[in-house]
Structures are given as structure tokens and as C-alpha cells.
Write the C-alpha cells for this entry.
Amino acid sequence: MLMRLKQVFYYINPYQDLGILIRQIADLMVIFIACFSTVLFINSSNGINQIFLESLSLFLLLSLIFIPTFYIKGIYTHGRNLPVRKKLLKLIQACLISGILVFVIFYVFKLYLDLTFTFSELLVSDLTISWSFTFLGSILSRIWLYSYIGTNPEENRISGNNKKVLVIGGGGYIGSSVVEQLLQKQYRVRVLDIFLFGEEPIAHLYDNENLEIIRGDFRKVDDLVMAVAGCKAVVHLGGIVGDPACSVDEQLTKDVNLTASKIIGQIAKTAGVSKFIFASSCSVYGAQDLILDENSTTKPLSLYARTKIASERVLSGLRDDSFIPVFLRFGTVYGFSGRTRFDLVANLLTANAYTKKTMTIFGQDQTRPFVHVNDAAYSIVCALETEFNNQDHVVFNIGSNSQNCTLLQLAEMIKTQIPDASIITEEGGDDARNYNVSFDRANDILGFKTKWTLEDGIKQVIEKFESGEIEDYSQSQYSNVKHLHEQGLTTLSSEELFNWEEAFLEETYG
């Protein structure tokens, strides 16, 4: 409830968006008409002045109930971004909550004055009828609005029929799942990727006529300009991912994760891109004991987390009415997509439990918010299909409240499926992150809900081993930091891709 009130206070100034003020005035008119009609129906014999005064007192009471409830339920703010069906459902919920408050007030009023009412008298009271008319008027006015004025944002969303989406890093861990899900929804997808880990993650999709591949580096302006052309949305998943991988070469990490993000945003905005989805991380919260939402203080502990929060701030500076950056802060990802990874804690502990029959936990009480890679990818689809404007708050934690758990709890879940594995706990460790995160906003605004559980993800890893698909999970191809050490660093630092301008000038002019 406190988190929702914080969101309400973010929007509480109606002049922040003229549309909010207009919707609020319209609802106040509906409430007054409902109250006036009620008093006229019950006390038609009274004079017009008396009817007006009684209507005004009812109006003030119901306004103090309905309007704050509508704010709390997001009717005036993020609720407008939802499909019509979900909008109406949210409106019905708000009206029912208001009704409960009306009856509570009625009951308290009855006790305070020591009045006696029968149930039938309660049903025909002016307060009950006014609420009923307001409920009906709110629903009918919205139905009329959606039907005849065409304010349904579904019509203006990025859609597969006539929009093209650029996925930077589409051959990666999350990117491969994003590409597959977008193609399944009939989007036209263009991928820009250097394919540092190979093309296998999306090779099975190459026959799809809606898929276009550009093998290039997003740090090269010419590759980037060619990739962005004709796209109305960009999903930026490219970068060096994970604390250990980012510490291999800090300057390279800054160039790839921060500098390039700024340039991508600038070029995308210039090219007419309307929506820019940026993959951030819950790592920006560092180590905090509170339940954290999107308005909580960020305390990044690593270079990786610092580049993420810095990129958010840089891209936010480009925001205007025609260019909306949306930031998705992913929890600790697990499971498999087109690419297999064993440098992630849930996958690695499960692999150790299956093959070595032991799991070593550093910092057993540290809490992490987990999310399956396919669910992380699905949140990007949700963000693409949600319409935003320049006043909307566009930072979202991505995960599930039910999947916030300690590392020890994670190990115990694994042991449930691999009973002969033992758990060894050690103090400390290099990773001090500890955060318990709320994911309510993504649920409310994006309509995002996870489909995978941690238990499902653990089972998925076990099945990989049982099928014989994985033999040696310590190979560098399954680890970002190992691959970067053995091959990736050379590729990313090559003159052809990195500092290519100097190499070009040297070749041209000697």
C-alpha cells in the first residue's frame, strides 16, 4: 500500500498532464449528475434550491471517496495505457472499493446517530443510489469514450503488422528469447549483433521471413545508422553483462555499456524511433534491507551496476514527447533460452548439485530477486505493447515478488529436486549484493506476470544434464567472463571494431 501511495504522489499534480485533469473533471461531473438525479428521484417534492444543496453534500462526500480511489488504482495515470478490457476491469475494481467505503461510512454514521435501518431502507438510501448511479455513469462514459472517440492505445502501439523492431544484441542470452517471442507475435525484427558467442542461439529462426540480420557492432556509427533506419522501436540488450565480466577491462566496459548507449539513444532519436527499451538491472540497488521499488535509492556496488544506472540517466536526458526511453531492471536471471549459461547462480548451483552432489553458498542470507530468462524477454514484449507518454514513469523492476529468496532458500529448492546433494555455507564472498524487490509496477502498468517459477528453472537445468545435452558446463562458451578472457576481449578490442576510426585513417593516409 505504501508503494502504491508513492506512485500516486508522483502523479498527484494534475497539471503534469492536461489529460489527467480533463478525466478528473469528467468524473466529477458524473458524480454530481448521479447525486442530483438521486435527490431528485427520492425528494422530488422539495424545491430546486433544497435539491441542489442536498445534491452538493452528497457530491462532496462521494468525490472524497471516488477520486482518491481512482488515483490509487491508477485510473488517471498508468491505467490509461492498458487495453480496453483491462481498463474497464480496473475501473470496476475502483468503483467496488468506493462502494465498500460508502457502506462503511453509512454504517459508522448509523452507529454514531444511533439510527435503525432495515436492509431494504439501506438499498434505497440516497448514499447507496448515488454510488450506484456513479458506478454506472463511470462505466458507460468510458465505454462511450473508447467506442466513439478512439482513445484506445492499442491502435497506436508498436504492432507486428506495420512496425519494425531493432533488437541490439538479439543473439544473446535474453535477446535470443526476445527475437523468438517477437517473431511468434508476427513482428518484423531486425537484429544487430556482433555474435560474440556465435549465431547458434537464433540460427533456427533464420528461415523466418520477418527476421533480418545485420552482423555488426553497435559502437560503429555506420552499422548503427543502417540498423536503426525504418524502425519505430529499439530494444537495446547489447553490452558486457555481469560483474566479473565487466571487471576484466574497465575502460572497455565503460565504452561498450555507457558511451555506446548514449550514442545509440541519440541516433535512434534522430532516426525517428518512438520507443527505446533499455535492459537495466536490479543490481543498481546494491545492498539494502528494505523492500525496494522503482523510487528507491540506487546504491550500485559494481562497475556493471554503475554503467546501468548511468545509462538510464543519460538516456532519460533524451526523452521528449516523441522519444520515450523505457528502463527494465531485470532481477537475477536463470534458466535457458537460445543460449546456455552456467555463470548464473541458480543454473550453476543446480549444475554443481547434479554433477558434484554439493553446493557451496557464499552469503547464505543474501536475498536476490530471480526471474527466468524467457520471462525477462516477455517483459520486453509487454513494454513494446504498452503506450507511454512523456509524463509516465518508465522504470520497471522485472521479476516476481514470489521469487525473492535468499541464496540458502535457493539451494534448499535445488536439494528438494536433487536430494543427495549437500549444501555447504561459507561467510562473505566477493558479491555483496542483497536486495528484496517489489515488482508491482510492472504488473500494474505493463500487465507483466511471470510464467516460470524457480522450481521450473531448476528442473530445466536438470533435464539438460539428463538428456546428455550438457557434458562439461565449465566450458568458456557457457560463461561470460571466461569467454571474455579467452576470446571475447580480443574480438571486442580489435582495430576493426574498436578504435576503427584510427585504423581507417592510418590505412587511408599512412
Remarks:
- The longest helix spans residues 84-112.
- The chain has a mean pLDDT of 81.
